[in-house]
Every structure is written in structure tokens, then in C-alpha cells.
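hiii, so i know i said id send this last week but things got crazy w the move. better late than never?? heres the sequnce for the chain we talked about at the cafe, plus the structure i predicted for it. fair warning i was half asleep when i ran it
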Amino acid sequence: MELSGEKLNKAADYAEASFRLMWKLFSENGRGRALTGMEDASEGIRTIVRDTYLVDSCPIYELEIPLSGEPYADFTVGYYAQELPEQINIVGNHLKPKEELIKHYQEMLVRDGDCNEVCFEFDVSVGETKLPAYGFVPYDTDDHTVSTNQKRIKDFCIAIHQEDRIDVAIKAYDKAPGNWKPLYQGVSDVREDAPMRIAWLLDHDCKKIYQNDPERLKKDLIDVRGNIEEESIIDQMREVLSGDGAVELQMDLFKDGSFSPFIGMCVQTYSFSKEDPQKSFEDYIKLGQKWGIADNRCKYLSLEKESVTIPYYDEKKGMIHKRINLGLFVLKFKWSNKGVMPLKAYYYLKSSITKW
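okay and structure toks below
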């Protein structure tokens, strides 16, 4: 049943008020201004929060933050399929065309039992607050087989009415070595030529191969995407791969089968070994500082997950308790054909209602 404009506006007010509480926790002790250049969330980000809200949901928000150069934050809104409300009501008009995509993953959860996230990414730093890139991120699954990934590609491309990407994406994944584990796809319809983001997981065993065979990484990359012009890029990638934790390898694929010059390596902080995760984190930060792609603002980063529970008045439920969680979950190294780019940190912010 469609909700009235008044109810949608109230839902948007609720989403914005909830997000302000999350941002307040994130921004404490000068962290917000140092990392994003903002003490309070910008009007653009608050607009996105309102326009992307699904009534009666608990979205997860992600901040993409550079660790050198001018501070800013790009912004992603994600919905875990298992947490989607039974009735989908989108507050703003700009995501209405994506309603079918959201319902698709909601139905897929019921059908297949997979835990997954549908997400909407906004390049706020260049003024984009209306037309997101969008993607499907599988979570909590050990199935990284090629056949499963082919199904994901087909499901995703059919859901967004871009079937002409299916064969190109499958061919790109088929070129990859067997120890690259297919991970997810995402598509931008606002960036030039609409590249598809494709990704693989490089686990401990894969990383060990590259440590023992310096030429293997270069060969594998060339087999998948073609020539790598800068030899220093390979050396730097191997340095990242010599660190702790799983690495997500990202590339952007165009419809003609060619790749953009960008290559990303996301270090997943939650996959650090239990012996000394803080040292692993610090080693990557030092690596970024050595290359001149991270500066002193890194002192505001922490591996420590933060959580607070606060009393909160809800119009429907009365006085409730809201738990706010946030934390660093990824450090991203990225290269272009000109060399290494600024290191980026990714923070998640999420709130939920709790009994205490």
C-alpha cells in the first residue's frame, strides 16, 4: 500500500534524525572535521539520507574518506536483504527506478536464503546527490565458485535491464586465475561510459603464491586486463599483498570488454589475524605514509569498533533505546596509469532499535 506524502515526510525526518546521531558519534573529538572536512554532515549527505530511506528499515551508511589531499567524504547507502521491510516504500523520487532492484534481492533472499546487500553509491565530492551507482554485495557466504558468480552476474544485469553486460563480464571473470575468487558486481550509470565494477577475493593462499613468485602477479594481471605500463605498480601491489588479511581486487570493465586504467586493492580490516590486528593496521598506514598517500589525519583512525546505546523518543513506540555502531572496515589502495593514488578509509555507520 502506497503511503501518503505526510507519512513519507515523517519517515524522512526520522531517518535524518537517526543519521544525525550516528554522525555525532563519528565526528567526536575532531574526527569528523579532520577526516571529512565537516563537523556536521553536509546538506548533500542529509538529502541522500532522506531520499534513499526505506520506511521501517535500518540502512547501513558508508563514508569513503581520502587520507591525503583535500578532506571530503563520498557516501554509500546499503540495505541488507534480510533486514528489508516487508513492504517497500521509498521516501524520495530519485530511487523509484531502483525499487524493482530492491524487491529483486528481497525475493532472492526468500528464495535462496543468501545474505546480501544492495547498495547505492553517491559521489558527493563532485556534487552527485541524485543519481547513484548501484550494486549487489554478497555477504556471509563461502561460495566463491565461478558458477555461482555467473548466476549473480545474470541476476544483477537482468534486474537493472543491462543484459548486454552479461557475456562481457563472464568472459572477464573466465580470464582470471583459479585462485582469484569472484566476489561481486556493481554498475555506475552516472560515470562516463558506465563501467561495471568487478571484484575478486585474494585470500592467504593466493597472496602466498605472489610472495613466492614475483612474476606471477604481473602475468595474471596482464592475462586478465592487458599490459601494465608502470612496473612500480606491480611492486607496490606485492607490498600490499605481503601484509595481513584478505584483499579485494577491484577493476572497472566497460561494455566493449576493455578496462579502465584504475585498479583497487581493498584491505579488509576485519580479516586481520587475531594475534595482533592493531599492528597489521598500523603497517598498512605506514605503507601509505611511506608512499606519500596518507598524512597525519590517520591518527584519527582506529580499529576499535564503537557502540553507544541511547534513550530515544519514537512517535510510534514512545521511549525506546537506539544502539549506534560505527567502525573502520576497509583501507583501499588504488592505482591509475600514472601511479598510486591517495589511500582511502571506509567507515560504516549503523543504528538499530534495541531493548536495552
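btw The chain has one domain: 5-199+274-334+342-354. thought thatd interest u
miss u guys!!
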